[in-house]
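Form 12-C: Joint structure prediction
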Amino acid sequence: MKWFAHALRNVLRNRRRTLMASTVVAIGTTAMAMTLCFMLATFFGLGESTIRADVGHIQITTPGSFDADTDIANGLTPTDQDHIAQVLAGTEGVRFSMRRILFDGLTSKGESTIAIVGRGVEPLQEMRLSGIFAPITRGQLMSVEGTHFEALIGERLAQKLEWAPRELLTLVGTTESGSINAVDVLSTGAYSTGVPEKDARAVMVPLHVAAALLDTENVSRVVVVLDDTADTDLVRTRLQSALPELEVRDWRQLDPFYEQVVTLYSNIFGILCLIIVLVVLMSVSNTMMMTVMERIREIGTLRAIGFSKFEMRIGFSIEGALIGLMGALIGLALAAVLSFAINVAGVEMPPAPGRTAPYPLIFFIDLRIYAGVAMVMVLSGVLGVIWPSRKGTSLPIVEALGHD
Amino acid sequence: MNAHSSCAPSDVGPIGTTFPLLALTEIKKGFGEGEGRVQALDGITLHIQSGEFCALSGPSGSGKSTLLNILGLLDQADSGSYFFDGQTLKGASEKTVRSLRQKHFGFVFQSFNLVQTLSAVENVEMALFHAPMKAGVKRKQASEMLDLVGLGERLNHRPNQLSGGQQQRVAVARALVRQPRLVFADEPTANLDAASAFGLMDLMDDMRRQIGTSFITSTHDNRLMDRFSRIISLEDGRILP
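Section 2 - Result
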């Protein structure tokens, strides 16, 4: 305690040196905390947008069907669907579920015929997942009851078809038994998935329309939505145990893009944080070197009256830790204020690669990250002092006493 | 052999039944290598008794400061023996030497060497840092010692708020607060005016009488010589007879 009090007194009374070192630590802290919080917000936002866009938290289908989406003959039979519904009803953390039919086919309007990737959905449930589940660019959403022969088409597909709202389109597909089948649908609107390549082939119809087109009672997948994304692993494990004959995957497995982004960003931000720590470390070390050199005579005097080198180094280490802590607290306060201001200002970032929509620049104010950064900065303060204090206390006492 | 090495007690000399407080025999110390080597101390044998008020005198370069550093265990001799209170320091650990300096030695430096960020009383308290006593007791003792050296009204002044003479008094208080058996003062009056210098000498003599501490003071100020009970004259690293 007396060492702490002594170090605290030195830190508080050497205002100029403390201010210099703490400023460097504070800037580093702000940069690191905001970087990590931005990263966290990005991961969270990306994850939730992946889930909310259409993937859901968990999907269930027959083995192998995740890699052969449109093989409806091997899809989930009505028996499977009932069994899944029973299991989901008894599983804690499940909010709701919905069925989907995925299919390939063609659509034609007049002379134009274009290959499509279709999806049969339960509009009401899709709306519960995504809000306006298909961001409409033109026309209007199809009826949420899903009882009419309606469709939504991707914006790029609409452009290719020279489409106008409420035009009739013909969808052509292959039935479960392998025959060619066609249905006419009223296309109520065009929408954007946010991914231009998808928009060029996307068609969305009510589930019963897709079932009629494919002449099937099977569905491709059951999509499960949870109360809390954090429960994904737990619920997936439970569902897989309860449905051993089926395949259960979570949103991270279904959309590898998320993991790729996480890996990429983690590496980039990791290197960035390492650079910040190194800069802080070197700056603290440099400042403390000046501090120690200014205090060589003091070191000699204290050693003459009985202080050991080790004790002197402990004292300097505590000073380093205190400078780190003070800088960290100032830096974190600054980070919190800046983050709040930017969040409130609603700054938008340009669309990510492969996306069409801008996304908001958000910085989380995450106490775990703040605590971690503070610890790193305190540690940097201590580490930054090691070399200067070793150098300063290694001088013979007589030499230190004669130091100018 | 270094300053902490020893010879048998009989080598110390005819000490009778009482050991000298501090004894050196054949201490040698040089600096540099080859032709540039300077022999600062060349076979110093010396006894210091309790309560002595000694001056180390001699011209610049005579070895006063080097001898004082070796006496104060701040530096090591190249050869010779060192006894404190009849005990050899041969092979003594750094910890033992440090403990001796903490408990039994005090130091007063030419440039005062006060910690600039600490107040007068805090500077004095630093000498009690390792003392096994409560903080309040340390503060009380430091305050009393400052009062004793005439700075009872300046307890919370920083060094830069004190005159040179006052700063040196703080340094004396720091040296004496643990009631050491020996105080080593290296040119303590060199940076003081005449009045302050005489005042400091009086103070040190008073302290010696009150506390019983021995003082060994290096000085080349002839005006002060009659204040000392013993003068050890050095020249070219040897004690003049």
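Section 3 - Comments
Residues 1-17 of chain B have pLDDT under 50 and may be disordered. The two ends of chain B are 25 Å apart (CA to CA).
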